[in-house]
Every structure is written in structure tokens, then in C-alpha cells.
Write a structure and sequence with these properties.
Helices cover about 60% and strands about 5% of the residues. The chain has 31 helices and five strands. It has helices spanning about 15-25, 45-60, 80-100, 105-120, 130-135, 140-155, 160-180, 185-205, 220-235, 250-260, 265-275, 290-305, 310-325, 335-340, 350-365, 370-390, 400-410, 415-425, 430-445, 455-465, 475-480, 485-490, 495-505, 510-520, 525-540, 545-550, 550-555, 560-570, 580-585, 590-600, 605-615, and strands spanning about 35-40, 65-70, 210-215, 240-245, 280. α4 (about 105-120) packs antiparallel against α8 (about 185-205) and α12 packs antiparallel against α13. The longest helix is centred in the N-terminal third of the chain and has 20 residues, at about 80-100. It is globular and about 85 Å long. It starts with 14 loop residues before the first helix and ends with a helix.
């Protein structure tokens, strides 16, 4: 099996892009630089960002550069992402100053200014002057009284009073030495002072700070904008470089959502984005050559784990295949791949043939489109089904399993149902019309498929080896029975179901009136809507809202809960949203999945604590 975390080995041949980006930072010579790494979900943004950092480390070393990795998504729902980024930068610089015994006082002064800014933002309705006056005057009660007055006036949330007390109490002893008596700085002046302290500190440490920001497009709009705003405080300061992994379209949507109460034109959205990102870098989309190389490397890695080949053979072959794939315009033949494995080629012949056949269709099929993460998941599902088949003593060949799963993944609902009904109607599980199509394709005859199978995918699929017309497909269909609707049924919604889908796409929680309307649809239609919502959740990278809206379906039909549990299982382990925990806690069908989250070492610690705390109260 293959996980979804960032690749430690460059199987996608992105190293040349990483080298170019690292060179840009070096050539900047200390001038500020912001690189935006953009690409669709699963395209390899996180891997590319880490490769840029690694390349910079190896070429320039840690003396000239200090690196900070920041994942905004981890702070969503339980902390202030803006403050978290500023604190992370301060902690990193303090640690460096103390290790070098240089500019330690300036480093701690920078920390104090961040604390001051935090309280100043809380007290924006009163003004920083109130903070300064309260600090120098001494009494905390005077300041809290001023805040309480704002609560009474309805312009300050009562819950924020405790936050102000805590932040003020932490900061008050330090402020007297930081601020001049009776000074009256405005919040913009404090921001400028913060940037000045930041600039001086980097200069004295003689280091460039490289911040690697990941998973920004997984965040809700407010968290994404908070993080961008925090970066804006530190952007365009000498000796800084920000590398931001995010889908550009998602960030533009976040900007629009954040400013939803204001009229904002396309030009303003573009301006906001362009002021943050100096160098937009698009993750290269994988073509047939790159997909073929990627498949070969993944499948031969599995062969190595199964002791079919040695690690030495695999590593040497990997380097040769990647070198060949760099010239993607010239193609990558099965012959070239076989040559890369030398005398060990017979041990991985099936894997090479499989990669050679699948590459074009996985690169071109709309449902996969060369997406590295989807390719991994496709292969993971294959390995899982192969294991299930073996445990049930089912006689199924791996090539046959691959071909039918590919059909299941890429065919639409009508096309899949056409094949499923033909298998069910056959006494021996063999499909005559499929055998006829394969025979015609072998002769080179014109494509003449049923109306349920329009080209081009079906024609490409029929031509793939092995031929299935003379194979009993009942065991294969048995393995796919639980995934049939989840993978194939993207179409065929009634008008009522389509309206319900549109309503649910605007929801971010369970809405009783929608639940009642879903019940009127019936379970079958509701399942199709859930499939669409699941697909949308994947596109939105499993944000809490995108999954929470699915609960409207399971509230109406609890029997569909296990299907939603499968979707929860697709969420990368390190990125499970804490906001989902209270929503799922009382759902029986989610119990096993939450237990798995709780014991999984890769789950975020706050998520595990929330599950444990909720269970303790029940």
C-alpha cells in the first residue's frame, strides 16, 4: 500500500522544477521573494514545496538559510492561524539567536512586539492607546472595565474579555520596558515597528528565513485569509522567502468568501493575489510518459516489498527510469523500461506490462487525469481487493482485477449498470457482447458498441489486455459490489435530487428542513446525492464543511452511514479536521472510524484529545 503523505523520493521527476525554484531564491541575494506553488488536489504541491526546501538546504546549507515549515490546516478550528504563524516565526528566530549567542535581546524584543500586536488586534475598538495607558498606569481592572464597556455597547464579544485578560496578563510585565511613557502609537505604527524589528533581527543574524507554507487551500476561507494576512505582515522584508503551496483557484475563492459582504471585482481578487505572490509556479501535470514512469516505480516498489527484487535493483532502476522520463517529449517505451532492470527484468515483467498498458488511460481519463494521489489510491484499492480475493479463496487474476476496477472507476453509471446486468443475466458470468467487441477490436474493425458505451474511454478499455469476454466476471463483480455506486454513479439524478444537491452544496451543517426533504427523495436517490457530495468533498480536500453537509443524508437515512464512513477513511491521517469530532461522536456508524482516528499515531493530537474527551463524557 502507498500513503498520501509528501513523497520522500522524487518519483514524479519534479527535481528540475525544485532546483529552478531554489536557484531563484539564491539569485535573489537577500531580496524578498514569494513563490506560489499551485496545482489541483493531489497533484504533488506538498511534495514539490518540500523538494524546494531540501534543494536549497543541500545547495546553500543551513548557515545562510533557516527553514520553517507551517501547515495552516492544522490550526483550523481550534487556534488563531494568524497568531500561530507569527509565533512559529518568532520561536524559530529565538532558537537560532540563542544557539548562535547573537542578537538574543533583539529576538526577544521581536517576540514582545508580536504579543503587543496580538493584544492590539483584540482591542482594536478601543485603540492601542488604552492598552499603553493601562499598562503604564498599572491596573488591569481599568483596561478590563474599558473592554466590558464595549461589551455593553454590543461592539465587543463577551467571550473575548477572558482572552484579553490572559494576553494582557502575559504581556503587562514586559510592556513598560518596550514602550515609552505616554507614547501613543496607532496599530499601523505598531505593525511597522514589528516589521522593523524583524528586518534588524534577520540582518544581525545574517540569515534568510525561508517559510514553507502548506495546505493553505485545505483551510476554510477565514483560516486561509488569516494565514495570508499574517504572511503579509512579514512579506517583502529583506532576507525572507515564502513558498506557498495552494491551488490558486481555491485561494481566489477564499478571498471572495472572506469579503462576501463587499462588492469585489475579478480585478481586485487578482490584485490581492498578485500582491502576495511574486512568482506563480504551476505543478506540472503528468502526461502519459510521466504516468508510465510513476506506475512503474510504484509497482516495482511493491515488488521490492514482496521480495521479488532487491532494494539495490529497484534503486538503480528508479534512477534510470526517471532519467529516461525527463525527456518526456520522446516517450518511454516498455523496451526502455525493461532495459533499466537488466537481468532482473523477468521478476517485474508483469508490473512493467501493466504500467505500459494503463499509462495512457490513467493520464487521459477525466476521472483520474494523471493525478498522482488518485493513481496511488487506484493502486491501493487494487492491492486491497487482491488481498480480499485471496482470503476468500477466489480465483481471480490480477490483470483481470485491474481491468475491471479501471472500468468501475472511469465508466459512468449507465455504462457500469449495462455490464453488471449482462453479467447477472449470464448463466456462467461471461458476457457475449463484450467478447464480440474484443474480437472486433483485435481484427481492427470499426467501433460498434452499445449506446450505453460511448467512446472514447470504452473503446480504449476494450482494447486493453487481458480480454474479459471469455472470463467468468461474477467474482470480480462481487468484489466491486460495495463500491459500485460510490465510484460510478456520478450521473442519473432526478430533477428533485438535482435541486436537493444544489441546496446541500450551500450547507455547512445539518439542517432539519433539508433532512425532511431528503427523506421524501427515497434512499436510492439520496445515495446518489451522497455520492456527488463525496466527490465534492474530495475536490474541496475534505474540509470540515464539505464533510459536514453529507450528514444531512445520513440523518435522513442512517443506513447510508457506512458509505460516508468510507469517505471519512479517505481523509489523510495527518489532516483530519477536529471540527468533525463533535458532529460524528453520536453517530453509530462513525464509531469505528473515530476509534481508528484516536489510536492512529498520525492523527493530529488535538483530534485525538477531542475524541477521548467526548468519549469520557458519554
Amino acid at each position: 500500500m502507498w500513503n498520501d503523505v509528501e513523497a520522500k523520493i522524487d518519483l514524479l521527476n519534479f527535481s528540475h522544477v525544485a532546483k529552478a525554484a531554489a536557484q531563484l531564491i539564491q539569485d535573489a541575494g537577500g531580496e524578498p521573494l514569494t513563490i506560489g506553488v499551485s496545482g489541483n488536489w493531489g497533484a504533488g504541491k506538498s511534495s514539490l514545496v518540500k523538494m524546494i526546501g531540501a534543494e536549497l538546504k543541500s545547495s546553500a546549507g543551513d548557515e545562510k538559510y533557516i527553514f520553517l515549515e507551517f501547515n495552516a490546516w492544522l490550526y483550523q478550528g481550534y487556534d488563531d492561524a494568524r497568531q500561530a504563524l507569527l509565533d512559529a516565526v518568532a520561536d524559530k528566530l529565538v532558537a537560532l539567536a540563542e544557539s548562535r549567542k547573537t542578537a538574543v535581546d533583539k529576538a526577544w524584543g521581536f517576540v514582545k512586539r508580536i504579543k503587543l500586536l496580538r493584544v492590539g488586534r483584540m482591542l482594536a475598538p478601543i485603540g492601542v492607546q488604552a492598552l499603553i495607558g493601562g499598562t503604564l498606569g498599572g491596573p488591569l481592572g481599568a483596561l478590563v472595565g474599558a473592554v466590558s464597556g464595549m461589551v455593553q455597547a454590543g461592539s465587543f464579544a463577551e467571550a473575548d474579555v477572558e482572552k484579553v485578560k490572559a494576553a494582557y496578563g502575559e504581556l503587562q510585565p514586559e510592556l513598560a520596558g518596550l514602550l515609552k511613557e505616554k507614547s501613543e502609537r496607532s496599530l499601523p505604527q505598531e505593525i511597522e515597528a514589528l516589521r522593523g524589528a524583524f528586518t534588524e533581527l534577520l540582518k544581525e543574524l545574517d540569515v534568510t528565513l525561508v517559510v514553507l507554507v502548506d495546505d493553505l487551500d485545505r483551510c476554510l476561507p477565514d483560516t486561509a485569509i488569516d494565514t495570508l494576512e499574517a504572511m503579509r505582515l512579514l512579506l517583502h522584508v529583506e532576507r525572507t522567502a515564502f513558498i506557498i503551496a495552494a491551488d490558486e483557484g481555491m485561494i481566489r475563492s477564499a478571498v471572495r468568501a472572506h469579503f462576501k459582504d463587499a462588492e469585489i471585482s475579478n480585478e481586485l481578487v487578482t490584485s490581492y493575489f498578485d500582491k502576495l505572490i511574486q512568482v506563480p509556479l504551476q505543478v506540472p501535470r503528468l502526461g502519459t510518459t510521466e504516468v508510465k514512469a510513476y506506475l512503474v516505480l510504484l509497482l516495482t516498489d511493491l515488488a521490492r516489498r514482496r521480495n521479488q527484487i532487491t532494494e539495490k535493483t529497484m534503486n538503480e532502476a528508479q534512477q534510470k527510469v526517471l532519467q529516461l522520463a525527463k525527456q518526456g517529449w520522446s516517450g518511454l517505451s516498455a523496451k526502455d523500461i525493461r532495459a533499466a532492470f537488466g537481468t532482473e527484468v523477468d521478476k517485474v515483467a508483469k508490473e512493467i506490462d501493466l504500467a505500459d498498458q494503463l499509462a495512457h488511460i490513467l493520464a487521459s481519463a477525466e476521472q483520474i487525469a494523471g493525478n498522482p494521489r488518485l493513481i496511488k489510491r487506484f493502486l491501493n484499492n487494487l492491492v486491497l481487493r487482491e488481498a480480499i480475493a485471496k482470503s476468500q479463496d477466489m480465483s481471480i487474476g490480477f490483470p483481470e482485477l485491474v481491468k475491471l476496477q479501471l472500468f468501475e472507476r472511469c465508466a459512468n453509471a449507465v455504462g457500469f449498470e449495462h455490464l453488471a446486468k449482462a453479467v447477472a443475466a449470464s448463466d456462467d458470468g461471461k458476457v457475449q457482447f463484450l467478447a464480440d467487441l474484443e474480437a472486433a477490436a483485435e481484427k481492427g474493425d470499426a467501433w460498434a458498441a452499445p449506446t450505453a458505451w460511448p467512446q472514447p474511454f470504452y473503446e480504449q478499455w476494450v482494447k486493453l489486455a487481458p480480454q474479459l469476454g471469455d472470463v467468468d466476471l461474477r467474482p470480480l463483480m462481487h468484489l466491486s459490489r460495495d463500491r459500485k455506486l460510490a465510484i460510478a454513479a456520478y450521473d442519473e439524478l432526478s430533477q428533485e435530487a438535482q435541486k436537493m444537491l444544489e441546496a446541500l452544496l450551500g450547507a455547512t451543517s445539518v439542517i432539519p428542513t433539508l433532512v425532511d426533504q431528503i427523506k421524501a427523495l427515497g434512499e436510492s436517490e439520496a445515495e446518489r446525492v451522497l455520492t456527488r457530495l463525496g466527490r465534492k468533498a474530495r475536490t474541496e480536500q475534505f474540509t470540515a464543511d464539505s464533510v459536514a453537509r453529507c450528514l444531512n443524508i445520513t440523518k435522513a437515512f442512517p443506513a447510508l452511514g457506512p458509505q460516508l464512513a468510507l469517505l471519512l477513511g479517505e481523509i489523510p491521517s495527518t489532516r483530519r479536521p477536529i471540527a468533525l469530532v463533535p458532529l460524528l461522536q453520536n453517530e453509530t456508524w462513525a464509531t469505528s472510524e473515530l476509534q481508528r482516528w484516536e489510536v492512529d499515531a498520525d492523527s493530529p493530537t488535538p483530534v485525538k484529545r477531542a475524541i477521548s474527551a467526548k468519549r469520557g463524557k458519554s
